[in-house]
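Milestone M4 deliverable, item 7.
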Amino acid sequence: MDKQSAEWLERIANALERLAPPAPQPVDLESADAFVWDGMQLNPIQHVSHVSLQLLQGIDYVRDILLRNTEQFAEGRTANNCLLWGARGMGKSSLVKAIHADINARTPHALALVEIHREDLPTLSALLTLLRNAKRLFILFCDDLSFDGNDASYKSLKTLLDGGIEGRPANVLFYATSNRRHLMPRDMVENEQSTAIHPAEAIEEKVSLSDRFGLWLGFHSSTQSIYLSMVEHYIDAMGLEVSRAEWEPQALEWAQARGSRSGRVAWQFIQDLNGRLGSMTRSEAAW
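Output delivered:
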């Protein structure tokens, strides 16, 4: 090889090296109680944004079931993967984070929460390989899980839920939230039913994904009384000095303007009320 060709090859190799992503750095799994998986490596999170478990009102039944299931897992007993589905803003993701914080407050470092985005589901096998031999217990958490069109990433999730040939790691549990009970939109189900030769078989694979969760916990829109109870609990917890005669009509008007009564709407009203009263700063109100 002549000198010029060697120089060209060296320049090409250097350019490719610059374009290649850096090798993932090893992560100390004991360094934090929460991580975010970016498809290649775990990034530790030192502070997880969450609310107190006691502040989540109107979801007592599902709260108790998920808490018991998570406690079983934290204590080394058997537990189920869980799908939290239903109405928007009713505390699905907040409940997962609140339970994680509650258990770790009682038993420090008992559980590590690992957030994984839906688009990174195809890399689940790499994540499980990383966690399989770890000494800690992990809850994998995917928020707002759903599948559309020809999205095939659900197959990676089926391997996790079913265990595959190697089996799901004993130190890993999977929690997901979704607005859809079957993780796919109704119009997609109806379209496949109407165009397929065997309608039932056409949607069976995707619809059956939700069946692989041992627990289904439904979250439904709150009544007016539950919504007002949520607002009242936030007011008491933040110590806001305002009478019920003053805040109740404002809270109802706020919900009417948003077209929804939910925990999220209640919290957004409290943020506005607190701001108008000037009772707490942003950092003080950030639970």
